[in-house]
Amino acid sequence: xxxxxxxxxxxxxxxxxxxxxxxxxxxxxxxxxxxxxxxxxxxxxxxxxxxxxxxxxxxxxxxxxxxxxxxxxxxxxxxxxxxxxxxxxxxxxxxxxxxxxxxxxxxxxxxxxxxxxxxxxxxxxxxxxxxxxxxxxxxxxxxxxxxxxxxxxxxxxxxxxxxxxxxxxxxxxxxxxxxxxxxxxxxxxxxxxxxxxxxxxxxxxxxxxxxxxxxxxxxxxxxxxxxxxxxxxxxxxxxxxxxxxxxxxxxxxxxxxxxxxxxxxxxxxxxxxxxxxxxxxxxxxxxxxxxxxxxxxxxxxxxxxxxxxxxxxxxxxxxxxxxxxxxxxxxxxxxxxxxxxxxxxxxxxxxxxxxxxxxxxxxxxxxxxxxxxxxxxxxxxxxxxxxxxxxxxxxxxxxxxxxx
Length: 404
What we know:
Layout: H1 2-30, E1 42-45, E2 51-58, E3 63-71, E4 77-84, E5 94-100, E6 106-112, E7 128-137, E8 142-150, E9 157-168, E10 171-172, E11 184-188, E12 193-195, H2 199-232, H3 242-272, H4 277-296, H5 308-337, H6 341-374, H7 396-403
Antiparallel strand pairs: 1-2, 2-3, 3-8, 4-5, 4-9, 5-6, 7-8, 9-10, 9-11, 11-12
């Protein structure tokens, strides 16, 4: 009973602290006094990034006066608040951006966002913004953007996004991860309701994550791993024919999963209305080359055929081209998706690891081949590399035969 009482007491204290925090945030919102003496009927503390949204909605002309207030920032930061009338998250967002420029003035402007790699360049929004201004209160480390918005006809509920990040010169730079990836939700200017769970934005983010994982695992890991297996394991007698089946398993799995990754990427582009042209073009090229590679297996000449040598050159060239393109495109994907840096670092570590294994096996297989040469294994039949008489793409066996 005593333990249960202590547990209930701890839970009561935690609930009280949470309620106190919420109440404090709401009071900071509703009782805030602007230097401009603006008064707003509705105010909501946003769930992350120390931000508050104040507004007055005017049904007669379907406009809204807003004040977006962001605390805990300095003169070297930018802040932004946006409505996204057609989607969720940053893509498609119609932004109000503010920062202290190089002259010390607080600059507020509009910026439509078409891509995650945006630098928030000035531009015209899809709805009217008759008035905009702002201020930076340095002693409170607080920035506020004021604006009047002409809302799209027929609706008062929109997806909203708010952000902050560093400024270099007069150019906003990329924001960080963490809470910056959670700063989206829904606002209804008519009812005064705000949700900050990210709803559709969270769903889109999950789809982007799935797209990224599929492509990293398939094109970025399985494909180069399969190439390493084919290139080096065949030199070991005990690995024949296991190396061939491992190679086929890796490349087939990579191809199937990779095609799925391309499909999710194309669907994301259709849903968002924004196309990552370079990333998309490289992905389609990779799938086309990999498809040709798969069908080329049906035309593979027999090992003793006079055209087998040229088929091998084609097979290696296309294979390594796909691997090179895949690694380049994965890093482009990291730049677009902008995940936490640990994921990019983890992939770099995996690629370095595969490269290190390949470098070790390169030296080791040469050691084995040269040792067999010294032992007088001059006959083609004594080289158990493969039915072609060569080891991987280098043609060790062919070179050794020429040497002896």
